[in-house]
Write a structure and sequence with these properties.
The complex is a heterodimer of chains A (334) and B (417). By secondary structure, chain A is α/β, with parallel strands linked by helices. Helices cover 35% and strands 17% of the residues of chain A. Chain A has 12 helices and 12 strands. In chain A, α8 links the parallel β8 and β9. Chain B has 417 residues and is of the alpha/beta class. The chains are: A alpha/beta (334), B alpha/beta (417).
Chain lengths: 334, 417
């Protein structure tokens, strides 16, 4: 399966299993989504379960919170992560806090799917990686898969989870893995091991990281598209990097991180999002706090620049394999 | 086209209330209709044809206290007696809690003085199982129905160990799912679209329960109000959208919210929602309009927006001093009067109430509130004597299960405390 098919399969499975699951968002119903992620679901489950919504992110998320308060389990879509901002108040002030402020009287078991990330010439408002805006919010879970198998398993786990989940989908990975070598043809998921996805129900636990590539020289903490970029950088430098795909950004799998960094003594953090106050800063702080006496080099961060995402300078902005390779070398030099 | 050099300069319009401290308000902007004058359409009315109702005012009780016109509900004196008691109870509760705040037993309070009819009559018009999404000024929804113990509400106000919200929320931010009262948020207007979502869920599941959304005049300017109208209209959600126009958003007159030369009910019509503008200080009108809207929603005929015209008789909150921005005696001159006085007058005329009974009920209610306050203090103490929920409750309930980072922070907090 492609990641698109895997995500669709997860929603199909959950619509089938749980009559309280409903799916809606802009262009999600009849048309099947601008990325085809919900194709065929309305025809199969009916307009009461899968439907189109007005162009109102605040309305989509706000109504989903109300549905959740009733007892449903809404899975809603924001067409691009770049467009979640109008829903900020509902996400931060309401979904994330409902359980806490009502002492469990009401809860918000909702999943908000958002295609994110760059590398597609999406320009300023089709490329952003706003994960740090969610990981900072207490009460939210933030998840980002990097392959079809995880995408399905994590989405099922997110829908089944009783906490609100921000489910970020790197659109650059929808059809195949991408290592940042934009000059080369893209390999489809059908030719990748992680494109093997079971048909039925399974889940990947939230707050679990994946050891993507074992290594001994340096730990790379990353997620989404940057997993493949890091893999390419490791291969091209010949550095024996251990790549950890965080998968679940917050709450996260601290044990896997600490175990790896204590082993390698070095750490490179890679994300597409802008640097300052990005999620990498939290990762660096955690590593510093938990692995200080094991560190043999400064923690490196390879990230997007502190600029809006540009159109023409896509590949100068996108943290590609050359930039990650340079960081791997810096981190392992001494 | 060239600009005309003789054209007058453009001027920014900033609305002002007619009344300011030391200067009386001219209430003619309210455009009142006489009691009984406004028609009562069938519940399957088309939204567009309610346009006239959005610019007039549904009223039942006339100046003599007679119930007149097509909106007069069927005579039900026991229910009206219950309604009067509910309003008196709400006012007695507010009055005592204001004192408790001044005594520092509670940190903060918000009264609904003058607005008691709206929540109390509405509570008696909807059904058990319906869900209200209130603001912080609908305590009457809880106090009218007698299904939540007053002492428990006061424990919330005191943030003491018996507070059902575990001291996490400011006073008055109640949550009572069992009483159809959604968790109150400090963020304005968010609950309106949530109410629509709840109503959509009820429709998705083929339920018969409806939702009731609440918002003030000032908060209608928030984007979630617009969102709520759009979604309610698009999905024909079984929801009542209540706009309580008490003329004031803290210090800001309703004209600054967009009320000048128009009404908030008119927003509903513009969105394709059947809309009413109703005398919010007329218990019978509130009862009748609420029933009409509830019946409409329950019959799958869609949402209704109701603008309740009332006046915020008290300060915005215990942290507010209205004498700094409006006439001190403004409420006394408000043409729609006091909802308790008006229903009392009606019941006295019907021979169903008397001054003696009024005094007696007032004394009973004052005693009930005082007893509840005492009970709450005995249960859990107050903020002033340091009775707060235990430390671990601060970390619980952020997520369903406490994640590792919060387990660690609880450990740290315990060590450092």
């Amino acid at each position: 399966m492609t990641m698109i098919q895997a995500l669709r399969s997860a929603m199909d499975v959950m619509l089938e299993r749980d009559p309280d699951v409903v799916i809606y968002g802009q262009d999600v119903g009849y048309f099947g989504g601008v990325f085809r992620c919900t194709e065929g679901l309305q025809a199969r489950y009916g307009k009461h379960r899968v439907f189109d919504a007005p162009i109102s992110e605040g309305g989509i998320v706000g109504s989903a919170i109300g549905m959740a308060a009733y007892g449903l389990r809404p899975v809603v879509e924001v067409q691009f992560a770049d467009y979640f901002y109008p829903a900020s108040d509902q996400i931060v002030s309401e979904a994330a806090r409902l359980r806490y402020r009502s002492a469990g009287d009401f809860t918000a078991p909702i999943t908000i799917r958002m295609p994110c990330g760059g590398g597609i010439y999406g320009g300023q408002t089709h490329s952003q990686s706003p994960e740090a805006l969610f990981t900072h919010v207490c009460g939210l879970r933030t998840v980002m898969p990097s392959n079809p198998y995880d995408a399905k398993g994590l989405l099922i786990a997110s829908i089944e989870n009783d906490d609100p989940v921000i489910f970020l989908e790197p659109k650059r990975l929808y059809n195949g893995p991408f290592d940042g070598h934009h000059e080369r043809p893209v390999v489809p998921w059908s030719q990748h091991a992680l494109g093997e996805v079971p048909e039925g129900h399974y889940s990947v636990p939230l707050d679990s990281a994946a050891l993507f590539l074992p290594g001994a020289a340096v730990t790379v903490l990353t997620y989404g598209t940057m997993v493949y970029v890091s893999e390419a950088a490791a291969a091209e430098t010949g550095i024996d990097a251990e790549i950890i795909d965080l998968r679940c950004l917050w709450p996260l799998d601290l044990d896997s991180i600490v175990t790896s960094v204590k082993k390698t003594g070095r750490c490179v953090i890679v994300h597409e999002a802008t640097r300052t106050s990005g999620f990498g800063a939290e990762l660096a702080a955690l590593v510093q706090e938990h692995c200080f006496y094991h560190l043999e080099a400064p923690i490196e961060r390879v990230t997007g620049w502190d600029t809006p995402y540009p159109h023409a300078l896509e590949w100068a902005y996108f943290p590609g394999p050359a930039r990650v390779a340079a960081a791997l070398r810096r981190a392992t030099e001494n | 086209m060239d600009l005309d050099p003789s054209a007058p300069p453009l001027r920014l319009h900033v609305p002002e209330p007619t009344g300011r401290p030391g200067h009386a308000t001219d209430f003619s902007y309210l455009h009142l209709s006489p009691a009984g004058a406004v028609r009562r359409p069938a519940i399957d009315v088309t939204p567009a044809s309610t346009a006239d109702l959005a610019f007039t005012l549904v009223r039942v009780l006339d100046d003599e206290g007679q119930a007149v016109g097509p909106w007069a509900p069927p005579e039900d004196l026991p229910l009206l007696r219950r309604g009067l008691r509910a309003m008196m109870k709400t006012r007695a509760f507010d009055a005592r809690m204001l004192i408790a705040q001044r005594q520092k037993k509670i940190s903060f309070y918000m009264q609904c003085l003058g607005e008691e009819a709206i929540a109390c009559a509405h509570a008696l018009a909807i059904a058990p199982g319906d869900m209200c999404f209130p603001t912080y000024r609908q305590q009457g929804l809880l106090l009218a129905r007698d299904d939540v113990a007053m002492a428990e509400m006061i424990c919330q106000l005191m943030s003491n160990p018996r507070d059902p919200m575990k001291g996490r929320q400011l006073p008055v931010m109640y949550s009572y799912q069992r009483a159809g009262f959604f968790s109150i948020s400090g963020n304005l207007a968010t609950q309106t679209i949530q109410a629509v979502g709840w109503a959509m869920a009820s429709a998705i599941k083929g339920d018969t329960r409806i939702a009731s959304a609440w918002i003030g005049d000032g908060a209608t300017a928030e984007s979630d109000f617009h969102t709520a109208l759009t979604f309610a209209h698009v999905y024909r959600a079984p929801v009542i959208l209540n706009v309580v126009n008490n003329q004031w958003a803290i210090s800001t007159f309703q004209a600054i919210a967009g009320g000048e030369s128009t009404t908030f009910a008119a927003r509903g019509v513009g969105s394709g929602i059947a809309s009413l503008r109703v005398d919010g200080n007329d218990f019978l009108a509130v009862l009748a309009a609420s029933r009409w809207a509830a019946e409409r929603a329950r019959a799958n005929l869609g949402p209704t927006l109701i603008e309740w015209l009332t006046y915020r008789g008290g300060a915005h909150s215990t942290a507010d001093d209205p004498s700094r921005y409006r006439p001190a005696d403004d409420w006394q001159h408000y043409p729609l009067g006091d909802p308790i006085t008006r229903l009392k007058q009606h019941l006295v005329q019907q021979g169903a109430w008397s001054d003696d009974e009024h005094r007696q009920v007032q004394a009973e209610l004052d005693a009930e509130v005082a007893a509840a306050l005492k009970e709450a203090e005995q249960y859990g103490g107050t903020l002033i004597d340091g009775h707060v929920p235990p430390l671990e409750t601060m970390f619980e309930g952020v997520y369903k299960d406490m994640p590792a980072h919060l387990v660690e922070q609880l450990r740290q907090a315990g060590k450092e405390a």
